[in-house]
Amino acid sequence: MSAVVVLGVVLAGCSVNVYEAGSGGAAGGGGGGGGGGVAQEENTGAVSIAGAATGVDAEAIQAVIDQGVNEAQDEFTATYTGSDSFEQNIVIQIEGGTPPDIGFYPQPGAVIDQAEQGNLVSLEDLGFDIADLEARFGSYLMSLGEFDGQHYGFPDTINFKSAIWYNVPEFEAAGYEIPETWEELIALSDQMVSDGNTPWCIGTGSEAATGWPATDWMEDIVLRQAGTEAYDNWVAGTLPFDSEEIRGAAETFGQIVFTDGYVFGGSDNITGTDFRDAPDPMFNDPPNCYLHRQATFITNFFPEGLTPLEDYDFFPFPTIDGNSGTLMAGGLSAVFSNRPEVRDFLELYSSQESQCRYGSVVEGVSLISANLEVEGDCYDNQLIAQAADTLIADLRDEVARFDASDLMPPAVGSGEFWNGMNNYTNNGPDNLDEVMSSIDAAFPAPGEEAAPEEEASE
Questions:
Q1: The dihedral of CA 210, 407, 331, 96: what is its sign?
Q2: Does 339 map to a domain?
Q3: What is the CATH number of the domain that holds 191?
Q4: Alpha-carbon gap, residue 403 to 268, rounded angstroms
Protein backbone atom coordinates (compact mmCIF):
# COMPACT_ATOMS: atom_id res chain seq x y z
CA MET A 1 0.00 0.00 0.00
CA SER A 2 2.94 2.27 -0.12
CA ALA A 3 2.51 5.34 -2.27
CA VAL A 4 5.40 6.32 -4.48
CA VAL A 5 6.37 9.82 -5.51
CA VAL A 6 9.59 11.30 -6.86
CA LEU A 7 11.96 13.49 -4.92
CA GLY A 8 11.42 17.23 -5.35
CA VAL A 9 14.29 19.54 -6.12
CA VAL A 10 15.07 23.12 -7.14
CA LEU A 11 18.12 25.33 -7.11
CA ALA A 12 16.16 28.30 -5.83
CA GLY A 13 17.47 31.70 -6.84
CA CYS A 14 20.41 30.14 -8.68
CA SER A 15 21.50 31.90 -11.85
CA VAL A 16 23.60 28.98 -13.10
CA ASN A 17 22.41 27.23 -16.24
CA VAL A 18 21.78 23.89 -14.60
CA TYR A 19 21.45 22.09 -17.90
CA GLU A 20 24.98 23.05 -18.93
CA ALA A 21 26.39 22.42 -15.45
CA GLY A 22 24.87 18.96 -15.24
CA SER A 23 25.36 17.77 -18.79
CA GLY A 24 29.12 17.87 -18.53
CA GLY A 25 29.05 15.05 -16.03
CA ALA A 26 26.57 13.06 -18.08
CA ALA A 27 28.56 13.43 -21.25
CA GLY A 28 31.61 12.20 -19.43
CA GLY A 29 30.02 8.85 -18.56
CA GLY A 30 30.48 6.22 -21.29
CA GLY A 31 27.87 4.16 -23.04
CA GLY A 32 24.50 3.06 -21.79
CA GLY A 33 23.77 1.18 -18.59
CA GLY A 34 22.21 -2.14 -17.80
CA GLY A 35 24.50 -3.90 -20.21
CA GLY A 36 22.71 -2.24 -23.14
CA GLY A 37 25.72 -0.22 -24.33
CA VAL A 38 23.48 2.67 -25.44
CA ALA A 39 25.47 5.81 -26.23
CA GLN A 40 24.37 9.16 -24.88
CA GLU A 41 21.83 10.86 -27.12
CA GLU A 42 21.09 14.48 -27.91
CA ASN A 43 18.78 16.64 -25.82
CA THR A 44 15.18 16.30 -27.04
CA GLY A 45 13.82 19.17 -24.95
CA ALA A 46 11.45 16.90 -23.00
CA VAL A 47 11.65 14.42 -20.12
CA SER A 48 8.80 11.94 -19.66
CA ILE A 49 8.17 10.36 -16.25
CA ALA A 50 5.65 7.62 -15.44
CA GLY A 51 4.68 6.18 -12.10
CA ALA A 52 2.02 4.54 -9.96
CA ALA A 53 1.13 7.65 -7.94
CA THR A 54 -2.24 9.18 -8.79
CA GLY A 55 -4.57 11.69 -7.14
CA VAL A 56 -3.05 14.08 -4.64
CA ASP A 57 0.37 12.44 -4.85
CA ALA A 58 0.45 12.85 -8.64
CA GLU A 59 -0.66 16.44 -8.25
CA ALA A 60 2.23 17.01 -5.86
CA ILE A 61 4.73 15.42 -8.22
CA GLN A 62 3.76 17.64 -11.13
CA ALA A 63 3.65 20.75 -8.92
CA VAL A 64 7.21 20.12 -7.73
CA ILE A 65 8.30 19.38 -11.30
CA ASP A 66 6.79 22.64 -12.51
CA GLN A 67 8.10 24.80 -9.68
CA GLY A 68 11.38 23.07 -9.00
CA VAL A 69 12.49 21.90 -12.44
CA ASN A 70 10.61 23.43 -15.34
CA GLU A 71 10.79 26.95 -13.93
CA ALA A 72 14.45 26.55 -12.95
CA GLN A 73 15.79 26.11 -16.50
CA ASP A 74 14.73 26.52 -20.13
CA GLU A 75 16.41 23.56 -21.83
CA PHE A 76 13.63 20.98 -21.37
CA THR A 77 10.14 20.41 -19.99
CA ALA A 78 9.42 17.49 -17.67
CA THR A 79 5.99 15.87 -17.41
CA TYR A 80 4.68 13.20 -15.04
CA THR A 81 1.94 10.67 -15.90
CA GLY A 82 0.48 8.51 -13.14
CA SER A 83 -1.59 5.36 -13.50
CA ASP A 84 -3.08 2.70 -11.25
CA SER A 85 -1.90 0.24 -13.92
CA PHE A 86 1.66 1.56 -14.04
CA GLU A 87 3.32 -1.81 -13.44
CA GLN A 88 1.43 -3.42 -16.32
CA ASN A 89 1.66 -0.42 -18.65
CA ILE A 90 5.40 0.05 -18.37
CA VAL A 91 6.05 -3.61 -19.21
CA ILE A 92 4.06 -3.14 -22.42
CA GLN A 93 5.96 0.07 -23.19
CA ILE A 94 9.34 -1.58 -22.60
CA GLU A 95 8.45 -4.52 -24.81
CA GLY A 96 7.28 -2.10 -27.49
CA GLY A 97 10.48 -0.06 -27.29
CA THR A 98 8.71 3.08 -26.02
CA PRO A 99 9.35 3.30 -22.27
CA PRO A 100 9.26 6.68 -20.50
CA ASP A 101 12.58 8.36 -19.83
CA ILE A 102 12.14 7.66 -16.11
CA GLY A 103 9.91 5.21 -14.26
CA PHE A 104 8.97 5.78 -10.64
CA TYR A 105 8.78 2.21 -9.33
CA PRO A 106 6.95 1.58 -6.03
CA GLN A 107 9.02 -1.56 -5.35
CA PRO A 108 12.83 -1.69 -5.57
CA GLY A 109 12.76 -5.30 -6.75
CA ALA A 110 11.19 -4.23 -10.04
CA VAL A 111 14.15 -1.92 -10.69
CA ILE A 112 16.61 -4.75 -10.14
CA ASP A 113 14.54 -6.92 -12.51
CA GLN A 114 14.81 -4.30 -15.26
CA ALA A 115 18.53 -3.94 -14.61
CA GLU A 116 18.97 -7.70 -14.97
CA GLN A 117 17.18 -7.55 -18.32
CA GLY A 118 19.54 -4.82 -19.53
CA ASN A 119 16.81 -2.22 -19.97
CA LEU A 120 18.17 0.54 -17.72
CA VAL A 121 20.87 3.20 -17.78
CA SER A 122 23.06 3.12 -14.69
CA LEU A 123 23.53 6.23 -12.59
CA GLU A 124 27.27 5.88 -13.19
CA ASP A 125 26.72 6.06 -16.97
CA LEU A 126 24.58 9.15 -16.46
CA GLY A 127 27.59 10.79 -14.80
CA PHE A 128 26.56 10.69 -11.15
CA ASP A 129 29.14 10.34 -8.40
CA ILE A 130 27.74 7.54 -6.23
CA ALA A 131 29.59 8.84 -3.16
CA ASP A 132 27.76 12.15 -3.57
CA LEU A 133 24.42 10.34 -3.87
CA GLU A 134 25.19 8.23 -0.80
CA ALA A 135 25.87 11.43 1.13
CA ARG A 136 22.52 12.76 -0.07
CA PHE A 137 20.36 9.67 0.52
CA GLY A 138 22.44 7.35 2.69
CA SER A 139 24.18 4.14 1.65
CA TYR A 140 21.22 1.91 2.54
CA LEU A 141 18.72 3.54 0.16
CA MET A 142 21.32 3.62 -2.61
CA SER A 143 22.05 -0.08 -2.08
CA LEU A 144 18.44 -0.99 -2.93
CA GLY A 145 19.06 -0.20 -6.59
CA GLU A 146 22.49 -1.81 -6.91
CA PHE A 147 23.04 -4.64 -9.38
CA ASP A 148 26.26 -6.17 -10.66
CA GLY A 149 28.41 -3.34 -9.30
CA GLN A 150 26.30 -0.53 -10.81
CA HIS A 151 23.46 1.59 -9.40
CA TYR A 152 20.11 1.78 -11.18
CA GLY A 153 17.75 3.18 -8.55
CA PHE A 154 17.48 6.87 -7.70
CA PRO A 155 15.61 7.15 -4.34
CA ASP A 156 12.12 8.63 -4.38
CA THR A 157 10.15 9.95 -1.47
CA ILE A 158 9.48 7.56 1.41
CA ASN A 159 6.74 6.79 3.93
CA PHE A 160 6.99 6.38 7.69
CA LYS A 161 5.46 3.08 8.78
CA SER A 162 6.49 2.70 12.43
CA ALA A 163 3.66 4.75 13.95
CA ILE A 164 1.27 3.87 16.77
CA TRP A 165 -1.78 6.17 16.77
CA TYR A 166 -3.92 7.16 19.73
CA ASN A 167 -6.95 9.28 20.59
CA VAL A 168 -5.33 12.24 22.37
CA PRO A 169 -8.20 13.47 24.62
CA GLU A 170 -9.23 9.97 25.74
CA PHE A 171 -5.63 8.85 26.21
CA GLU A 172 -4.81 11.84 28.37
CA ALA A 173 -8.09 11.72 30.29
CA ALA A 174 -7.30 8.14 31.31
CA GLY A 175 -3.87 9.21 32.53
CA TYR A 176 -1.95 6.97 30.15
CA GLU A 177 1.67 7.75 29.26
CA ILE A 178 3.55 7.24 26.01
CA PRO A 179 5.58 3.99 26.17
CA GLU A 180 9.17 4.03 24.95
CA THR A 181 9.96 0.31 25.27
CA TRP A 182 8.13 -2.90 24.39
CA GLU A 183 7.86 -3.75 28.08
CA GLU A 184 6.19 -0.40 28.72
CA LEU A 185 3.83 -0.98 25.77
CA ILE A 186 2.75 -4.35 27.21
CA ALA A 187 2.37 -2.79 30.66
CA LEU A 188 0.22 -0.02 29.15
CA SER A 189 -1.95 -2.61 27.36
CA ASP A 190 -2.36 -4.53 30.63
CA GLN A 191 -3.34 -1.32 32.43
CA MET A 192 -5.98 -0.56 29.81
CA VAL A 193 -7.48 -4.03 30.21
CA SER A 194 -7.45 -3.59 33.98
CA ASP A 195 -9.31 -0.30 33.54
CA GLY A 196 -12.00 -2.08 31.50
CA ASN A 197 -10.70 -0.74 28.17
CA THR A 198 -9.56 -2.53 25.02
CA PRO A 199 -6.02 -1.51 23.99
CA TRP A 200 -5.83 -2.35 20.30
CA CYS A 201 -7.72 -2.03 17.05
CA ILE A 202 -6.17 -4.23 14.34
CA GLY A 203 -7.49 -4.92 10.86
CA THR A 204 -5.54 -6.61 8.06
CA GLY A 205 -8.31 -6.96 5.47
CA SER A 206 -7.34 -5.64 2.04
CA GLU A 207 -9.20 -7.66 -0.61
CA ALA A 208 -6.67 -9.84 -2.46
CA ALA A 209 -3.84 -8.27 -0.42
CA THR A 210 -5.31 -9.22 2.96
CA GLY A 211 -2.57 -9.78 5.49
CA TRP A 212 -0.05 -7.11 4.55
CA PRO A 213 -0.61 -4.99 7.71
CA ALA A 214 0.35 -8.02 9.81
CA THR A 215 3.61 -8.34 7.86
CA ASP A 216 4.37 -4.73 8.80
CA TRP A 217 3.98 -5.66 12.47
CA MET A 218 6.42 -8.53 11.96
CA GLU A 219 8.92 -6.29 10.16
CA ASP A 220 8.88 -3.66 12.89
CA ILE A 221 9.52 -6.34 15.49
CA VAL A 222 12.24 -8.19 13.56
CA LEU A 223 14.08 -4.91 12.95
CA ARG A 224 14.24 -4.14 16.67
CA GLN A 225 14.28 -7.57 18.27
CA ALA A 226 16.72 -9.29 15.89
CA GLY A 227 18.61 -6.23 14.55
CA THR A 228 19.48 -4.86 11.13
CA GLU A 229 21.88 -7.64 10.12
CA ALA A 230 19.31 -10.33 10.82
CA TYR A 231 16.67 -8.22 9.03
CA ASP A 232 18.84 -7.95 5.92
CA ASN A 233 19.59 -11.68 5.96
CA TRP A 234 15.88 -12.40 6.37
CA VAL A 235 15.07 -10.28 3.32
CA ALA A 236 17.81 -12.01 1.33
CA GLY A 237 16.44 -15.44 2.24
CA THR A 238 19.54 -16.57 4.13
CA LEU A 239 17.77 -16.35 7.50
CA PRO A 240 14.70 -18.63 7.33
CA PHE A 241 11.29 -17.76 8.69
CA ASP A 242 11.59 -20.91 10.75
CA SER A 243 14.60 -19.53 12.62
CA GLU A 244 14.87 -18.49 16.22
CA GLU A 245 14.96 -14.80 15.29
CA ILE A 246 11.87 -14.75 13.03
CA ARG A 247 9.86 -17.20 15.14
CA GLY A 248 10.67 -14.99 18.11
CA ALA A 249 9.26 -11.97 16.30
CA ALA A 250 6.06 -13.86 15.52
CA GLU A 251 5.72 -14.84 19.18
CA THR A 252 6.25 -11.20 20.22
CA PHE A 253 3.52 -10.13 17.79
CA GLY A 254 1.41 -12.88 19.34
CA GLN A 255 1.65 -11.10 22.70
CA ILE A 256 -0.58 -8.41 21.20
CA VAL A 257 -2.82 -10.56 19.01
CA PHE A 258 -3.58 -13.47 21.33
CA THR A 259 -3.73 -11.91 24.80
CA ASP A 260 -7.32 -11.94 26.06
CA GLY A 261 -8.89 -8.50 25.96
CA TYR A 262 -6.13 -6.88 23.93
CA VAL A 263 -7.79 -6.67 20.48
CA PHE A 264 -11.19 -5.18 19.73
CA GLY A 265 -13.31 -7.97 18.25
CA GLY A 266 -10.73 -10.62 19.08
CA SER A 267 -7.93 -12.10 16.98
CA ASP A 268 -10.31 -14.11 14.79
CA ASN A 269 -11.81 -10.86 13.42
CA ILE A 270 -8.51 -9.27 12.41
CA THR A 271 -8.45 -10.49 8.81
CA GLY A 272 -12.14 -9.69 8.39
CA THR A 273 -11.64 -6.05 9.37
CA ASP A 274 -10.62 -3.80 6.49
CA PHE A 275 -7.42 -1.94 7.33
CA ARG A 276 -9.03 1.35 6.24
CA ASP A 277 -11.86 0.90 8.74
CA ALA A 278 -9.75 -0.55 11.55
CA PRO A 279 -8.92 2.73 13.36
CA ASP A 280 -12.52 4.06 13.37
CA PRO A 281 -13.54 2.52 16.75
CA MET A 282 -10.70 4.47 18.36
CA PHE A 283 -12.81 7.63 17.86
CA ASN A 284 -16.13 6.30 19.15
CA ASP A 285 -17.60 7.77 22.32
CA PRO A 286 -16.52 5.99 24.41
CA PRO A 287 -13.63 4.57 22.36
CA ASN A 288 -13.63 0.85 21.63
CA CYS A 289 -9.84 0.85 21.47
CA TYR A 290 -6.99 3.19 22.35
CA LEU A 291 -4.09 2.21 20.05
CA HIS A 292 -3.63 1.47 16.35
CA ARG A 293 -0.39 0.69 14.51
CA GLN A 294 -0.23 1.87 10.89
CA ALA A 295 1.77 4.06 8.49
CA THR A 296 1.26 7.81 8.34
CA PHE A 297 -1.04 7.55 5.31
CA ILE A 298 -3.79 6.05 7.51
CA THR A 299 -4.93 9.53 8.57
CA ASN A 300 -6.54 9.80 5.12
CA PHE A 301 -9.05 7.20 6.36
CA PHE A 302 -9.73 8.69 9.79
CA PRO A 303 -13.29 9.97 10.39
CA GLU A 304 -13.90 13.47 9.06
CA GLY A 305 -13.75 16.48 11.33
CA LEU A 306 -10.74 15.39 13.40
CA THR A 307 -7.86 17.78 14.09
CA PRO A 308 -4.27 16.47 14.04
CA LEU A 309 -2.43 16.72 17.36
CA GLU A 310 -5.63 17.75 19.14
CA ASP A 311 -7.76 14.68 18.37
CA TYR A 312 -5.06 12.23 17.34
CA ASP A 313 -1.30 11.82 17.42
CA PHE A 314 1.23 9.01 17.14
CA PHE A 315 4.34 7.80 18.89
CA PRO A 316 7.12 5.75 17.26
CA PHE A 317 7.05 1.98 17.59
CA PRO A 318 8.95 1.36 20.85
CA THR A 319 12.40 -0.09 21.27
CA ILE A 320 12.86 -3.81 21.98
CA ASP A 321 15.81 -4.88 24.11
CA GLY A 322 17.18 -1.37 23.67
CA ASN A 323 17.13 -1.53 19.86
CA SER A 324 15.41 1.20 17.85
CA GLY A 325 14.68 1.46 14.15
CA THR A 326 12.19 2.68 11.57
CA LEU A 327 10.24 0.76 8.96
CA MET A 328 9.62 2.62 5.72
CA ALA A 329 8.16 2.23 2.25
CA GLY A 330 8.74 4.19 -0.91
CA GLY A 331 10.28 3.58 -4.30
CA LEU A 332 13.10 4.06 -6.74
CA SER A 333 13.35 5.96 -10.01
CA ALA A 334 14.72 3.91 -12.90
CA VAL A 335 16.21 5.56 -16.00
CA PHE A 336 15.56 4.25 -19.52
CA SER A 337 17.19 7.05 -21.55
CA ASN A 338 20.80 8.22 -21.56
CA ARG A 339 20.36 11.91 -22.39
CA PRO A 340 21.83 14.94 -20.62
CA GLU A 341 18.45 16.47 -19.77
CA VAL A 342 17.39 13.25 -18.02
CA ARG A 343 20.46 13.45 -15.83
CA ASP A 344 19.85 17.13 -15.17
CA PHE A 345 16.22 16.49 -14.28
CA LEU A 346 17.31 14.08 -11.54
CA GLU A 347 19.94 16.52 -10.30
CA LEU A 348 17.42 19.36 -10.08
CA TYR A 349 14.81 17.09 -8.58
CA SER A 350 16.95 15.78 -5.74
CA SER A 351 18.57 18.77 -4.05
CA GLN A 352 17.57 19.94 -0.60
CA GLU A 353 15.95 23.19 -1.74
CA SER A 354 13.30 21.49 -3.82
CA GLN A 355 12.72 18.49 -1.58
CA CYS A 356 11.29 20.95 0.92
CA ARG A 357 8.46 21.69 -1.49
CA TYR A 358 6.82 18.37 -0.76
CA GLY A 359 6.09 19.63 2.73
CA SER A 360 3.78 22.37 1.49
CA VAL A 361 3.21 22.18 -2.27
CA VAL A 362 -0.09 20.26 -2.02
CA GLU A 363 -2.26 19.78 1.06
CA GLY A 364 -2.80 16.22 2.20
CA VAL A 365 0.48 14.71 0.99
CA SER A 366 2.06 12.49 3.66
CA LEU A 367 5.27 11.68 1.81
CA ILE A 368 8.73 12.30 3.20
CA SER A 369 11.83 13.27 1.24
CA ALA A 370 14.62 10.70 1.10
CA ASN A 371 17.17 13.51 1.03
CA LEU A 372 18.91 13.46 4.42
CA GLU A 373 19.25 17.25 4.36
CA VAL A 374 15.48 17.77 4.39
CA GLU A 375 14.36 17.99 8.01
CA GLY A 376 11.04 18.35 9.79
CA ASP A 377 10.84 22.13 9.54
CA CYS A 378 10.17 21.74 5.79
CA TYR A 379 6.75 20.23 6.45
CA ASP A 380 3.60 22.20 7.21
CA ASN A 381 1.95 19.07 8.65
CA GLN A 382 3.43 18.67 12.13
CA LEU A 383 2.74 14.94 12.24
CA ILE A 384 4.68 14.44 9.01
CA ALA A 385 7.42 16.71 10.37
CA GLN A 386 7.67 14.48 13.44
CA ALA A 387 7.81 11.37 11.26
CA ALA A 388 10.40 12.93 8.94
CA ASP A 389 12.75 13.83 11.77
CA THR A 390 12.53 10.30 13.19
CA LEU A 391 13.01 8.60 9.82
CA ILE A 392 15.88 10.79 8.63
CA ALA A 393 17.69 10.36 11.96
CA ASP A 394 17.37 6.57 11.71
CA LEU A 395 18.56 6.62 8.08
CA ARG A 396 21.64 8.53 9.21
CA ASP A 397 22.15 5.98 12.01
CA GLU A 398 21.59 3.15 9.48
CA VAL A 399 18.80 1.56 11.52
CA ALA A 400 15.97 2.36 9.09
CA ARG A 401 14.92 -0.43 6.75
CA PHE A 402 12.63 -0.80 3.75
CA ASP A 403 9.47 -2.90 3.99
CA ALA A 404 10.75 -6.51 3.89
CA SER A 405 7.79 -7.95 2.00
CA ASP A 406 8.36 -5.44 -0.82
CA LEU A 407 11.99 -6.61 -1.11
CA MET A 408 11.32 -10.35 -0.97
CA PRO A 409 10.42 -12.43 -4.06
CA PRO A 410 6.73 -11.86 -4.90
CA ALA A 411 5.86 -15.50 -4.16
CA VAL A 412 6.92 -14.75 -0.59
CA GLY A 413 6.50 -11.03 0.07
CA SER A 414 3.11 -10.57 -1.60
CA GLY A 415 2.13 -14.23 -1.44
CA GLU A 416 2.83 -16.78 1.25
CA PHE A 417 3.98 -14.19 3.82
CA TRP A 418 0.56 -12.55 3.62
CA ASN A 419 -1.18 -15.94 3.67
CA GLY A 420 0.91 -17.15 6.59
CA MET A 421 0.09 -14.13 8.73
CA ASN A 422 -3.61 -14.62 7.97
CA ASN A 423 -3.29 -18.23 9.05
CA TYR A 424 -1.46 -17.19 12.22
CA THR A 425 -3.95 -14.53 13.34
CA ASN A 426 -6.99 -16.64 12.43
CA ASN A 427 -5.92 -19.96 13.95
CA GLY A 428 -3.76 -19.00 16.91
CA PRO A 429 -0.19 -19.52 18.10
CA ASP A 430 -0.33 -23.33 18.00
CA ASN A 431 0.01 -23.30 14.19
CA LEU A 432 3.26 -21.31 14.14
CA ASP A 433 5.28 -24.34 12.95
CA GLU A 434 3.00 -24.73 9.94
CA VAL A 435 3.04 -21.00 9.20
CA MET A 436 6.81 -20.62 9.24
CA SER A 437 7.39 -23.80 7.21
CA SER A 438 4.85 -22.82 4.55
CA ILE A 439 6.47 -19.42 4.02
CA ASP A 440 9.97 -20.92 3.84
CA ALA A 441 8.74 -23.38 1.22
CA ALA A 442 7.84 -20.44 -1.05
CA PHE A 443 11.26 -18.82 -0.66
CA PRO A 444 13.99 -19.91 -3.11
CA ALA A 445 16.71 -21.72 -1.17
CA PRO A 446 20.04 -19.87 -0.91
CA GLY A 447 22.07 -20.56 -4.05
CA GLU A 448 19.17 -22.27 -5.82
CA GLU A 449 19.00 -19.74 -8.64
CA ALA A 450 22.78 -19.76 -9.06
CA ALA A 451 22.96 -23.53 -9.57
CA PRO A 452 22.33 -23.52 -13.36
CA GLU A 453 25.07 -20.92 -13.88
CA GLU A 454 27.54 -22.93 -11.82
CA GLU A 455 26.73 -26.03 -13.81
CA ALA A 456 27.22 -24.17 -17.09
CA SER A 457 30.56 -22.74 -15.96
CA GLU A 458 31.79 -26.18 -15.05
A1: negative
A2: yes
A3: 3.40.190.10
A4: 25
At 279, which amino acid appears? P
Is 332 within 8 Å of 108 (Cβ atoms)? Answer: yes
pLDDT given for residue 119 in this prediction: 97
- Determine the pLDDT at residue 74: 93
CA-CA distance, 406 to 399, in Å (whole number)? 18
Is 129 in a helix, a strand, or coil? coil
What does pTM read for this prediction? 0.85
C-alpha 261/C-alpha 256 separation (Å) is: 10
* Beta bridge mates, 9: none
- The per-residue pLDDT for 14 is 31
Residue 167 shares a structural domain with residue 315: yes
Q: What percent of the chain has pLDDT over 70?
A: 88
Give the residue numbers spanning the domain of 365.
18-159+328-396
User: Do residues 167 and 312 lie in contact, with contact meaning Cβ atoms separated by under 8 Å?
Assistant: yes
Last residue of a domain, one of 396, 417, 452: 396
Report how far Cα 346 is from the mean position of its chain's Cα atoms: 20
Could you count the other beta carbons within 10 Å of the beta carbon of residue 364?
Answer: 12
Residue 148: exposure state from Cβ atoms within 10 A (0-12, 13-18, ≥19): exposed
Average pLDDT, the chain: 88
The answer on 275 and 185 residing in a single domain is yes
Q: Judge residue 455's burial from the number of C-beta atoms within 10 Å of its C-beta, 0-12 exposed, 13-18 middle, 19 or more buried.
A: exposed
Residues 50 and 33 placed together within one structural domain of the fold? yes
